[in-house]
Amino acid sequence: MKPLLQVNNLTKRYGRLTAVDQVSFSVREGEILGLIGPNGAGKTTVFESLGGVLPADQLEISHEGRPLGMAGLNSILFYLPDAITPWPSQTVNWALDFTVGLFGGRADLREDVVRRLELASLLDRSMGKLSKGQRKRALLALGVLAPQPVLMADEPFEGLDLRQTREVASALRSYAGEGKRTMVLSIHQIADAARVCDRFVLLSGGKLCGEGTLAELSALAAARSSNASPTGLEEVFLALT
Amino acid sequence: MPSPKPALLWLLNKEWRELLASRAWWVFLLLMGPLVGVSFISAVNTYAEASGLGGTSTGVGEAFSPLVGIWAPTFSACELAAAFLLPFVAIRLVAGDRQSGALKLELQHRMPALTRIAAKALVLMLGWLIALLAPLAAVVLWKSYGGSIYSPELMTVVLGHLLNAGLTIALACTAASVTEHPATAAILTLAITVGSWIVNFIAAVHGGMWERIAGYTPTAMVAQFQHGLVRLDVLLIAVTLILAGLTLAAVWIRLGVAVRRRVDESVAVVVIAATVVFSCASLRPSWDLSENRMNSFSRADELALRQIHAPLRIEVHLAPEDPRRVDLEHRALSKLRRIMPQARVEYLSATSIGLFEQTSAHYGEIWYELDGRREMNRATTPEAVLETIYALAAVTPPESDSEFRGHPLAVRPRGAALVFYGIWPALIVVLGFLTQRRHL
């Protein structure tokens, strides 16, 4: 089966520094793919390059086996950056309407998204006056309402407490699945990633260290070291990076 | 549930809401009232005194035109606002998206970048039109005093200030797109504005090519419109510069494009704009829409000058800063060029001031050459210029046919202070408060 998206040889340099070096991975339909790595691993650079925010030095993308340009990628993938406060003077309610209206988003999901991400009490608040966690939930709502089949969210659990993280993870899971939404999430908290993701792409120092399910990565880690096969994602990550 | 309106309408709606939420715009609106008020009240008082109020000899004001006496000074407040207030409103609207991260989301819609910038420019222009309600209130007050209004000249002044605002908006949008931070954009915009004033200064000192370039700076452009003169070259060059500025802003507002490519595209935009500007600079059509025809000779003189087909050459031995040269240029030669586009004027001087050239035998001479005949005259008045040309061309000078008798009005600006210093600021404060409460 061909992947929904295939990213090949993604490279981004800042002068002499190579932030992301020849990274390739695939995204399968309906899955939640976690991009895992410590701070400075290049996760955000990968996302910004794919989201059309940063010009990549090298990047080949194919959609269901067909080559895709950046313009085409915008119709497949919606990028939700971390640490932004869009339209700070406008209300959450307006921001949701605007996302649905401008992008031709999923108006049918609006009520459900508001309920599941607990935004009902925040609808009349301006985006700029939300707390970090509230803002993150509002941003995730924008991402879920966008019409593109792939949602790529940078650090979706950043700023959320444990209970909120679990609820948001549960909500994201319910929106993903075969025939529904595909998600690519950048997560630096490995425990969070293990809770929500189906497959993982491990990044360290701008290089790809592994890609696959937990079992596949565990096997890869075992093959690379003489020690016993690691079982948890944290051990796998440490073994492979 | 959002209505299924086109994406562009959503974008315009968003820009309008952002403008309403912008404190910079409300401060700008608030200041427009007192700025216009000071200019209008002072202009009406001066006009009244010249028209005979308070013991001044009656009749002095008969040559007075509201265009020069009232509208030019009243609308000069708009020039001040366009230079020092409007750029901050525009920069806030463009740079705000980058600062907040909204741009990263919005750019994922496949709308052309130029459409995005055009939406911002349209909303900013609407904001400017709302600010023009202050001078419009001055028009209403003037009418209520019994003042004369000649619509073509008033509309010309408004057109000049709309174009000036367009130039400011385009410049501020470009600066906000090119730079990373709004403060840098503000410094860049003000630097270019001050730069254009320096060009005017250099032109006044050195003349020549600088004088030609200075003719297209916003200050010079507005001055022409404030005199009721619409020049096709100025109009087209202003529109070209506005479009070029907005295109440059569109080139730089895109995030995922390599800097090298954006530089190449910018160079292409600048080259195309420069070519268009250079082509437009040679266009000569112009329209004098002032009631007193202040940019034209009398109709009889124009008719007589049109009969002269031989090429006219004028050699002026006066320095750029010599007041006689300024007088000659503004009162005679600029009018002559409009009716005789083939006339060639050459200024000759060794210094910029002319003070130390006075001892030179030829300094101050104005030589006229027509069809091989030459004549010299030192007078710089329009009458003397015309007389010399008629003599060279053997054309009988026509009788004077000036129809303009002026519109003297000896009244004080009743109620203007209340409108501009009281009602206007109070209205803006209340509207600003209510609007921000509704939107936030």
Report the largest inter-chain contact. A-B, 38 and 31 residues
**DSSP summary: helix tally of chain A:** 9
Q: Can you tell me the overall shape of chain B? A: globular
Gyration radius from CA atoms of chain A, angstroms: 18 Å
Fraction in beta strands of chain B = 5-15%
Low-confidence runs of chain A: none
Q: Label the overall shape of chain A.
A: globular
- Give the termini distance of chain A in whole angstroms: 29 Å
Strand content of chain A: 25-35%
The oligomerization state is: heterodimer
Query: What is the helix fraction of residues of chain B, given as a range?
Result: 55-70%
User: What share of residues of chain A is helical?
Assistant: 25-40%
Tally of separate helices of chain B: 17
Task: Determine the structural class of chain B based on helices, strands and strand pairing.
Answer: mainly alpha
Strand order of the largest sheet of chain A: 6-7-8-3-9-10
Rg of chain B (C-alpha, Å): 25 Å
Distance between the termini of chain B: 19 Å
Question: What can you tell me about this protein's structure?
Answer:
The complex is a heterodimer of chains A (241) and B (440). By secondary structure, chain A is α/β, with parallel strands linked by helices. Chain A contains nine helices and ten strands. In chain A, a hairpin with a 2-residue loop joins strand 1 and strand 2 (17-27). Chain B is mostly helical and 440 residues long. Chain B is built from 17 helices and six strands. In chain B, strand 5 and strand 6 form a beta hairpin. In chain B, helix 7 runs antiparallel to helix 17. Classes of the chains: A alpha/beta (241), B mainly alpha (440). At the A-B interface, helix 2, strand 6 and helix 3 of A face helix 1 and helix 5 of B.
